[in-house]
Amino acid sequence: MEADYLLISSLETLKSHLRFLLTLRSREGHYRSLILFRLSLVQNGASKPNETEYGQLYAMEANCPHLGADMSHAEIEECDAGLVAVCPWHRYDFDLRTGESETGLKACTYAVQVRVDEDGIRRVWVETPEDGTDWRLVELRPVSEDFADPPPPPDLSRLTITSSSDDRSISSPTEPVVPVEGAPTTLIQWAVLILNTSNPTLKVERTRHAVQLFRTGQLKTIGHRSATAPRPPDVPPREDSFARNMVDPAKVTHRKNRAAMLHALANIEQWAIDLAWDIIARYGPAHPDLPPAFFSDFTKMALDESKHFSLLVARLAALSPGTPYGSLPVHAGLWDSASATFNSLRARLVIIHLVHEARGLDVNPGTIARFRRAGDDESVRALEVIHHDEVTHVTTGHRWFTWLCTKQGVDPVQTFRDEVRRCWRGDVKGPFNVEAREMAGLTPQFYEDLKGEMPLVDQASK
Ligand code: FES
Q1: Where is this region: Disordered (predicted)?
Q2: How many domains does the chain have?
Q3: Domain co-membership, 57 together with 200
C-alpha cells in the first residue's frame, strides 16, 4: 500500500536550523514525535531523492528504541552502509534511512519528499505513521543548537537594582550550579534540587544545566523507579525579598500598567518552572511505567518556562528599572491550584496543563495587543514566543492526559470534565481561543459549559 504523506512546511522554512522536532497527532488522539534532520553533508555519488541544495532530509522517531533517549541531540556519523544517528545515551547507532542498528533494534524512520506545488514553491512532506488516520502537524520546533555549546544564562541579579533603604534586588546566587557535595546523579534528583532552589537566577541556570546533561547523554538515569528517589517539597521555597511581597491571590489588584503585567507574568513563569520539575519529581516515582518521552517533554517545558521567565525579567528591567522582579505583590495561586492535585497525575495534567495553561492561550492575544498598542515591540516579540511555546505545553498536557486515559481505559472528555468538577472551583471561563485550544488537542467538548465544584477551604480552620 502506498504511504500517506503529511505536509510539514516550505523547504525555505527549514533553512533556519539543521534539526526540527515534529509533533503529529492523529484523529484518534495518538501522538508521534519525530526529528527531522537536515544534513549539510556533501555526499559522493548519485544525488538522493530527498537531497536539496540545503542538504539531505531524514526523519526518524524522536525517542531511541533502546531506552527512550531524546534523539534530537544524536550525533550523525557516516559509516560504510550510509548515515547513522548515534544515540547520546548508550551510543547505539541507527541508519537514518532504514532505522536499522547493528544491535538488532530498529528505529522507525519516515520517508521525506520535496514536492513543488502549483505556485512553484518547494514543500517538504513526511510519511505518516501507520497507526491512526488524518495525521496533522501540531508542532514544528527548531532544535536549538545552543545545546552543543550553551551560552551562559542571563544573570538576573544584574538586571535589578539595590537601594540601601529598600533592598529589592534578587540576590546573586551564592551556590554553584552543580553542588560541590551530593551532586545529583538522576533526573529526579535534579528536579528536587531545582525545586528547592529559591534563587531564581540559580533555578534558571540549574534548569539549563540539567536539561543539557539529560539531552546530551551525560545524565542517563531518570531515577523514577528507584526506591530512594527524593521527595519534592510541598511548596518550593522563595527568596526572602520575594516572600515578603507574597499576598493572597484574591487580594492582588490587577494593575494595568505594563511593568506590573510583566512582573505578574514573570511570577507565573517562575512557578511554571517549578511545576514542570514537580510533575517529573512527584509523579515519576508513582508511575514507574511512564516512558522516557514523558520526561523529555517535561524537561523541554521546564526549559521553555525558564526562557520565558528570563525574557520577562529582562523586559521588566528595561521598561521599569525601579520595579525589579520581586518588588511588586506576587501570589502563589498557581501552586495552590497544583497542590489540590498532589495525589493524582491525571488531575494535575487537567488542572495545570489543560485548564490554567489553556486559559493562557485565551488571554495571551489580548495581552500582546495591549503591548503592541503601547508601541513596545520588544515585549510583543517576547510575548509571542511565549504564546507559541504555550500552545505546545497544552499539547503536551493533552498528549499525556490521553495516554493515561488510554492506559486506564477511561474516556478522555468525560474524565477531563470529572476532574475539573472535583479539583477546580467555579466556571471554566471563556471567551475561549478555540483555534489555539483545538491546535493543542482541546476541542470544545472538553471545556464548554463546565464548572468546578471543589468546596471552598475554610481559611480559619487551616
Ligand atoms: S542507546 Fe539510546 S537509550 Fe540506550
Answers
A1: 144-178
A2: 2
A3: no
Instruction: Let me know whether 195 and 48 are in one domain.
Output: no
Last residue in a domain, options 84, 116, 142: 142
**Quick one: pLDDT at residue 328?**
87
Give the distance (Å) from ligand 1 centre to CA of residue 407: 25
Nearest alpha carbon to residue 225 among 396, 67, 338, 398: 67
Do residues 179 and 73 share a domain? no
Ligand 1 mean position to 259 CA, how many Å? 46
Rg of the chain in Å (alpha carbons): 23
71 close to ligand 1 (CB < 6 Angstrom):
no
Q: In what order do the strands lie in the sheet with 5-10?
A: 5-10, 122-127, 112-116
CA 93 to centroid of ligand 1, rounded, Å? 9
Question: Ligand 1 atom 1: the closest Cα is on which residue?
Answer: 90
Residue 456, pLDDT score: 75
Distance from C-alpha of 297 to C-alpha of 395, rounded to nearest angstrom: 10
Based on the domain organization, do 121 and 155 belong to the same domain? no
Is 106 close to ligand 1, i.e. is its CB under 6 Å away?
A: no
Question: Which residues lie across from 136 on neighbouring strands?
Answer: 25
The rounded Å distance from CA 149 to ligand 1 centre is: 22
Mean model confidence pLDDT for the chain: 88
Angle at 401 between CA 399 and CA 403, to 5 degrees: 70
What CA–CA distances, in Å, run from 347 to 340, 343, 420, 421? 9, 8, 8, 10
* Nearest-angstrom CA–CA distance, 442 and 435: 9
Instruction: Please tell me if the CB atom of residue 87 comes closer than 6 angstroms to any atom of ligand 1.
Output: yes
Per-residue pLDDT at 165: 35
**154 and 240 housed in the same domain:** yes
Query: From ligand 1's centre to the CA of 65, what distance in Å?
Result: 7
Domain boundaries, position 68: 5-142
Amino acid at 324: P
| Three-state secondary structure call for residue 251 | helix
* 94 close to ligand 1 (CB < 6 Angstrom): no
Q: What is the mean pLDDT of each run of 10 residues along the chain (462 residues)?
A: 87 91 93 91 53 81 92 88 89 94 93 92 94 90 61 45 42 85 96 97 95 90 91 94 72 71 95 98 95 94 95 94 88 92 97 97 95 94 94 95 96 97 94 95 96 74 41
Q: 231 CB less than 6 Å from ligand 1?
A: no
- Looking at residue 355, the DSSP 8-state letter turns out to be I
